[in-house]
Request: fold
Amino acid sequence: MLFEPVTAELSFEDDGNELVGDFVRPPWPGPYPAVVFVEGSGPGGRDQGSWQARLAAAGFASLAYDKPGSGASTGDWTSQTMAGRAEETVAAVQAVRSREDVLSGAVALIGGSQGGWVAQLAASADDRIAAVVTVSGPGVSVRVQEEYRLRHQFAAEGFSSPDIQQALVLLRDQVQRVQSGDDPARVHAAQAQWHAAPWYPLLAGTTPESIAFIAGIADYDPAPALAALRCPLLAIFGADDLLVPVEASVRAISNTLKDARHADHAMVVFPCADHNIRVYTGKGPAQVKQGRYTPAERAPGFDELIVTWLQRRLPPLALREEPVLQSA
Reply:
């Protein structure tokens, strides 16, 4: 028997941009609960690997779309703020809700990395969002997370302590100067002596546009959005994440939600897993951090955790016919 999800292009508008993505659903009649993917930093968004097919097999529809200026979408993601990204996410949810084959009260978000901040902010603004799953979504500010990334990713790549300190100086200079009103192009030009450094491409700000973007979001603090969150939250981390301070994030999220008396949240940390929740075989955490490892696809149980958690928290599925499968 051959399982074939049904894929259709879906587009919606936000802030004058047309955003285009793939709406994937099970091959049996709906209506379905649904998931909207919230992409992390950088361009992209539509390609979620096997995730949309995995969700369709579990009975969920899903939308993954190109960020502004990526793929078929118009606009420019580098001009966005966190608030703007959250508004765009809400518009995506509304587009999915409007479909007759979707249970309008059962639309959840899955946000990866920077998308975790965005998903929480969107759900705090739209109380009809049914649930949020974050994968390596930091619980600290953008500035704190980015400085952590530079220290740990650079060390794992073999760069020296002076390299790390210089990168931190450049980051702080970019943020301070742009926030004080300096032109990002001038800031970029002023750092020209470092452009050829082998570690320079690892900075978040390497062009005037990306410098403006990181400076614009650097002070974002997720605590207010978390405190306002009312829907269930599942926050997943990898213990060996080099990009996100996992212990500090778990502590910050837990404390904020506890203080807000949030009723339904869980945090899961997969041991020996990286930022993408991939695990490593035949090596210990020290070798992982030094970049000597054999990666597996995903940490065991990661897919099942997300699917079962969503199934338990979204409204019950509507009665439907048995799945229709094609013979191989």
Remarks:
- Confidence is low (pLDDT under 50) at residues 318-328.
- DSSP finds eleven helices and ten strands in the chain.
